[in-house]
Write the structure tokens for this entry.
Amino acid sequence: MGFLHDGHMALVNQCRSDNEYAVASVFVNPAQFSPQEDFSTYPRDMDADLAKLEAAGVDLVFTPSVDEIYPEGFAAFVDVGPLGERLEGEFRPGHFRGVATVVCKLLSIVRPDRAYFGQKDAQQCMVVEALSRDLNLGAEIVVVPTVRDPDGLALSSRNAYLGEKERTAALLLSASLNLAREIWLSGGTDTGLVKDRMRALIEGNPLARIDYVSIADGDTLEELDQLRRSALVSLAVNIGKTRLIDNVIL
Amino acid sequence: MGFLHDGHMALVNQCRSDNEYAVASVFVNPAQFSPQEDFSTYPRDMDADLAKLEAAGVDLVFTPSVDEIYPEGFAAFVDVGPLGERLEGEFRPGHFRGVATVVCKLLSIVRPDRAYFGQKDAQQCMVVEALSRDLNLGAEIVVVPTVRDPDGLALSSRNAYLGEKERTAALLLSASLNLAREIWLSGGTDTGLVKDRMRALIEGNPLARIDYVSIADGDTLEELDQLRRSALVSLAVNIGKTRLIDNVIL
């Protein structure tokens, strides 16, 4: 979706190192935003994006217009079922339908051997893996670790929206995930207790409003009663008007 | 879906004549049948199908199992919107979702330059065209004219279900389409009148029960008030327990 940061560039670098030819797409996909979301104000900077991609050695950049991707009469949509209805899907109805549809199109147009997605959007990675596998799109989905600022904030184009106090509040996402990991490493097992402590930490800041805190099976996204290896701890928090997500795998 | 007849072989022959390499799939797709439909009894004869395809010079036949196409955990579906909800879609909810999904998979697996479908399933042709175009699957969809028995009955694997009296009743489908064409050629314009006369002709036989008689725009499938060039006249009629469809383009 452009407005590239070092998280995106980690995808590019991994792709360049794994493959002979690297393609990037820059496309802010209207189909994955609901009407009240930030499609029109989502940050864009094509010149800077192209300069970064060129400097990183990308061979081809695909920058379609909205009309090219969704011409008049466009009607087909891809749905990935329950995986797209939990967590983000619950708070952003239709979001993963929009993601799956545009990724299906991009994979069909480019036909890559591998496609690179960031772990920060963990559920998106799972949706895209299901998409490519179920519809035989032929792309291996490679998940690249989340890139963080030194203070722990996961990189996101939406971080550009944050004022100074908001940025401090946003650190509560990674801090609460660290708290979950510490409880797990020190032998805790009760997910209800962990989620309560994460919530309490976040809700201590008046700028933060939680959408969800989840500890779920890393394959099905079903909520777990007990902490276990490879569980996905994830959360979505509104910091002022900016909605942020983050996650960690135990 | 196999149980090949001369309608299928017309697709094969057209494909062979247009291309260097011809691939056929034989797969009775459970996703396009609803629970009360004839998936389990749908006629199958793989040995005869393979012999016909080999004799016709097909280079490769893909005969996947249901588990290969829909493995455990399969969840993705393709939906083509309103085009799949009219006519057949109204009487067979989910049918075109099943068609679009399996054709998406087959086109993604085989990646053909062209894919051949029969005009007898006119709406299916339109759905597949929308699918390939909207999801950028890269296949040109070629529609091949309906093949008919000398008495006018459109070839269909389901004709195998018909008893002698039923087969006679089934001729009312093509007869009513001929009636529509004659009214059009003699200057008639009122689609309501044409549909009434088609219905009256069919309902004269007690073995026939109409699902729909439609005169619709050939691109959008919206019902028309006036006959016009390139309108799609289509119908679905149950002959005893056998559901048949047919159509003609003015």
User: Anything to note?
Assistant: The longest strand of chain A covers residues 208-216. Chain A touches chain B at residues 74-83, 100-101, 104-105, 108-109, 111, 130-131, 134-138 (CB under 8 Å). The helical segments of chain A are 6-18, 46-55, 66-69, 88-91, 95-110, 122-134, 164-185, 191-203.
